[in-house]
Amino acid sequence: MSQKIERDHQRFRKIVRGKVKSNLGKYITRGEMIGKKGRDLVSIPLPQIDIPQFRYGQKGSGGVGQGEGDPGQPLTAPQDDGESGAGDQPGGHILEVDLTLEELAEILGEELSLPRIEPRGKRNIITTKDKYTGIRQAGPESLRHFKRTFKRALKRQISSGVYDPLKPLVVPIREDKQYRSWKEVKKPESVACIIYMMDVSGSMTDEQKEIVRIEAFWIDTWIKAHYQGIQNVYIVHDAVAHEVDEHTFYHTRESGGTKISSAYEMADKIITKRFAPDQWNIYAFHFSDGDNWGDDIPHCIEILNEKLLPKVNLFGYGQVESPYGSGEFFEYINEMIDKKENVVASRIPDREAILASIKEFLGTGR
């Protein structure tokens, strides 16, 4: 029975996976997954999956099997447009399923045909892992090796002449029991740092920040699938840059001018102080509406070429469109793409462009 339940569960998981994959663009643009994110699981509403159930109609309401009908008569009772106020009839229910972040990463990779990331950092954390390498005579019952124990008990009963083929009952005794043994293995773990930078000047609206939040969630999900340890750094800037926590990053808004170089300088200082490039895989993503103080642009390009780009696996610039920003900074970053293989630039005019932007950022496999 348990095996049948497990097969049914696996079949249901495949259905869910197919539904999520086929509607990935919709889930991304709505941001439904992020609001229901737990520590290791993400709850996803799937209204497309109907749970089989009996449905009973009202007595004498007509329909199939209720006497003669007229041509064109609907099989079900017509539905009104609805009235205000509370109703007394049950409504449709949305099924929520939990997927792990690893499953989401696999779905994202399959849908966008993303190449796997090749870590650059050599080492940062050493952990120990239990590896089962042999068999011993003593141990906890949770580690008892069933097959080996059964075989020893069977051999003992056959050799002693107590085994009855007509009543094949095999009862292990203490001397028959075999247990898995293990040893601790030291395992280096690749780690990564993701630095998010965002322009929070008055021209960046709440909708643009929500676009950034959704895109950052999927970037996190994909990169975390390739590393055991991840640290996120959040930098906001207008004319001056500040390191902040995640909540402040997505909810603060400033006024005044914009100097993008202030964010790049702070990112470089943080990397130098906390993340050695020979040990960490560093990813930097900057989101802006492309408006920058004109005299600051040469300084930005200088910092990128001489400081940031030699240290990071990938630098991604995402430009969200704003009715107030000039958007000219995109062209300067775009010119660097042919010269620097770890630079990616993406335009994100609205939520519908998020999926394509994610593919541009993560499609390099760096």
Task: Describe the model.
It contains 11 helices and 10 strands. Strand 5, helix 6 and strand 6 form a beta-alpha-beta unit. It is flat. The protein folds into 3 domains: 68 residues, no CATH class; 61 residues, no CATH class; 173 residues, 3-Layer(aba) Sandwich (Rossmann fold), CATH 3.40.50. The mean pLDDT is 77. The longest helix has 21 residues. The protein is α/β, with parallel strands linked by helices and 366 residues long. Strands 7-6-5-8-9-10 form a 6-stranded mixed sheet.
Query: What's the order of the H and E elements?
Result: HHHEEHEHEEHEEHHEHEHEH
Estimated helix fraction: 25-40%
Number of domains: 3
Q: What is Rg?
A: 30 Å
What is the top-level CATH class of the largest domain?
A: Alpha Beta
Placed side by side, the strands forming the largest sheet appear as 7-6-5-8-9-10
What is the number of helices? Answer: 11
User: How much is the average pLDDT?
Assistant: 77
In CATH, the homologous superfamily of the largest domain goes by the name von Willebrand factor, type A domain
Q: Which consecutive residue ranges, at least 5 long each, have pLDDT under 50?
A: none
| Euclidean distance between termini CA atoms | 46 Å
Q: Total number of β-strand segments?
A: 10
Structural class: alpha/beta
The CATH topology of the largest domain is Rossmann fold
The biggest beta sheet is recorded as: 6 strands, mixed
Strand content: 15-25%
Any guess at the CATH architecture of the largest domain? 3-Layer(aba) Sandwich
Mass-distribution shape: flat
